[in-house]
Amino acid sequence: MKVEEWRAGVRVVHGVLVMVLLALLAGCVAELPPVAPTAEPADASALAVTATPAPAPEAGAADTTADVDAPEPVMLDAPLWALGYTADGSTLVLGTAYGLYTFTDDVWTRSSTPPRYYAGFAPVADGFYSSGQPDLGDDEPDPLGLVKSEDMGETLEWLAFTGESLFNQMGAGYRSNTVYVINEEENSLLP
Predict the structure, then answer these.
(1) How far is it, in rounded angstroms, from Cα 28 to Cα 22?
(2) Residue 58 resides in a domain
């Protein structure tokens, strides 16, 4: 089997696993906004995510939303690499090819952090580990190597393989912080 065929197979399996994980999460969390595949996505993990509008107040009820702007729906049309909850369990975080997206209090939000390509993304109790690439035109090393953030991507701690390796498949022990990666290309430390 050629390396290219193996990588293609890994990407298909990765997409299927992400979809299964999303289906499991949808069954565990009540009243999430709809998450549906886009029309003929180029990538099996591309999703459309929109916030469900709040129901209209009953006739005669006081309108308490007059001073509150309704959030705009957020469209997620990017490969989804991984997802997980923040340590307090209040926020679902999605690591995508266009940055981080969060779901809190029934609202989807795109993170204000740089739209890095989070190819590998592994949430842990005190933040997340990741790999990937910086936004176009950004002066961060490309590829990111192995990084960690404890502030939702505002800052990155550069751990290893900076400018050297991109880990598409990664995981980490939520409390142990043990990081697992599949190394697709030789680098200075891993064959």
Answers:
(1) 10
(2) no
> Given a cut of 60, is residue 94 above it in pLDDT?
yes
- Average pLDDT, stretch 173-189? 93
Residue 189 domain-assigned? no
Contact 180, 131 (CB under 8 A): no
Q: Are the C-beta atoms of 114 and 134 separated by less than 8 Å?
A: yes
Task: Report the C-alpha gap between 127 and 4 in whole angstroms.
Answer: 33
Residue 190: which residues within 8 A CB-CB, separation 6 or more?
Answer: 165, 183
Instruction: Give strand pairing partners of 123.
Output: 128
- Measured distance CA(45)–CA(42) in Å, rounded: 9
- Domain containing 136 equals 3-49+72-181
Residue 57 lies in a domain: no
Tally of structural domains, the chain: 1
pLDDT in tens, 120-151: 899 999 999 999 999 988 899 999 999 999 99
